[in-house]
């Protein structure tokens, strides 16, 4: 039996009273001993330096809003602390991370569209719609989603993994990159792989997708087989890239990432073991 989702998105009226709120600043999200949800009416009495507020959905059936602060203020709450979105990703509750990931994306979009991109006049929220509207020139701005590909390249019992200078020390991952205007996801796979490691691939197969709210990516996951070429890492982008035996792998990405899913899926297929479930896709 499918378990009802605890988190669902919705456009909520910010003029409505009550509900819960998550609090965001440049330091992340506020959390105390009870979690990340705070009574919204109580927050309104805390004299916060609020940049904006948006209604984002329901958690366990209750309305939830995101309140974005101009700076990371301290609240008089025992045990309250700021925690980054990546820290929540590594925690136990996947649906809390989904909620905060969505909140972060809506907050980023709202912050970047406070003013019209066409005429520069102040924009305002559209009631009942996830849009910012400029009454001066009639332009509407909707939340941005940036499609990108991520691909595991294999050669029998070997996988091609690389590391960026931005990665944690020792960690290797799959290749990834943003889609360019006018190209298909498969074209993006071919181009990014060639740019990053000078390798040609074949038999490209789509494996699934994952929202990646850092800040607003949609990761399209693929598996591809090696066709030809010698690895030549792209300067300034790829610190190192190698073929690794599936029996002797380096430190890998976090278990909830689609990069790790692509790797674990291939390992399961080679060994005949149970295939993993893409994070966020389980029925319950």
From TrEMBL:
PANTHER family: NAD-CAPPED RNA HYDROLASE NUDT12 (PTHR42904:SF6), NUDIX HYDROLASE, NUDC SUBFAMILY (PTHR42904). The lineage of its organism: Bacteria, Pseudomonadati, Pseudomonadota, Gammaproteobacteria, Pseudomonadales. A divalent metal cation 3 binds at residues 192, 196, 237. InterPro entries: NAD-cap_RNA_hydrolase_NudC, NADH_PPase-like_N, NudC-like_C, NUDIX_hydrolase-like_dom_sf, NUDIX_hydrolase_dom, RNA_Hydrolase_NudC, Znr_NADH_PPase. A divalent metal cation 1 binds at residues 176, 196, 237. Substrate binds at residues 86, 129, 142, 210-217, 259. Residues 143-266 form the Nudix hydrolase domain. A divalent metal cation 2 binds at residue 192. Pfam families: NUDIX (PF00293), NUDIX-like (PF09296), Zn_ribbon_NUD (PF09297). The gene is nudC. It is an enzyme of class 3 (hydrolase). It comes from Pseudomonas graminis. Homodimer. A motif (Nudix box) lies at residues 177-198. Keywords: Hydrolase, Magnesium, Manganese, Metal-binding, NAD, Zinc. It catalyses: NAD(+) + H2O = beta-nicotinamide D-ribonucleotide + AMP + 2 H(+); a 5'-end NAD(+)-phospho-ribonucleoside in mRNA + H2O = a 5'-end phospho-adenosine-phospho-ribonucleoside in mRNA + beta-nicotinamide D-ribonucleotide + 2 H(+); NADH + H2O = reduced beta-nicotinamide D-ribonucleotide + AMP + 2 H(+). This is NAD-capped RNA hydrolase NudC. Its cofactor is Mg(2+); Mn(2+); Zn(2+). GO terms for molecular function: magnesium ion binding; manganese ion binding; NAD+ diphosphatase activity; NADH pyrophosphatase activity; zinc ion binding. HAMAP family: Nudix_NudC. mRNA decapping enzyme that specifically removes the nicotinamide adenine dinucleotide (NAD) cap from a subset of mRNAs by hydrolyzing the diphosphate linkage to produce nicotinamide mononucleotide (NMN) and 5' monophosphate mRNA. The NAD-cap is present at the 5'-end of some mRNAs and stabilizes RNA against 5'-processing. Has preference for mRNAs with a 5'-end purine. Catalyzes the hydrolysis of a broad range of dinucleotide pyrophosphates.
